[in-house]
Amino acid sequence: GKYETNRAWRLVKAHEIPAGRKPMKGKWVYKVKYNSDGSVERFKARWVACGYSQVPGVDFTETFCGTLRHESSRICLALANEADHDLLEVDT
């Protein structure tokens, strides 16, 4: 699948885990994607690791941040304008 192709994770056997380390805990999250007519388009599943059990530099070396869709930003701007709110841009 795409996770193996992108090397996002790999399944390891118990004897492959280094001494003093434990497998990351997590859970499966399931989602159903629907077509506009309400019929099922596809089923999706993903593994979500518990972040508190991960050690930076050992369990991961990169982090990613979601980005705002253009449509969402336009809606936020329109709502702020309608309510006469001031907007502040913050770049972290």
Q: Could you tell me how far the N terminus lies from the C terminus, measured between alpha carbons in angstroms?
A: 34 Å
Order of helices and strands: HEEH
Largest sheet: 2 strands, antiparallel
Binned strand content = 15-25%
Query: How many distinct helices?
Result: 2
Cross-sheet strand order for the largest sheet: 1-2
Computed structural class: alpha+beta
What does this structure look like?
The chain is an alpha+beta fold and 92 residues long. The protein is 18% helix and 21% strand. The chain is built from two helices and two strands. Strands 1-2 form a two-stranded antiparallel sheet. β1 and β2 form a beta hairpin. The two termini are 34 Å apart. The model has no long low-confidence stretch (mean pLDDT 84).
List keywords for this structure.
92 residues, alpha+beta, two-stranded antiparallel sheet, 2 strands, 18% helix, flat
How would you summarize this macromolecular structure in one to three sentences?
18% of the residues lie in helices and 21% in strands. The protein is of the alpha+beta class.
Topology:
Blueprint: H1 2-5, E1 26-34, E2 40-49, H2 70-82
Antiparallel strand pairs: 1-2
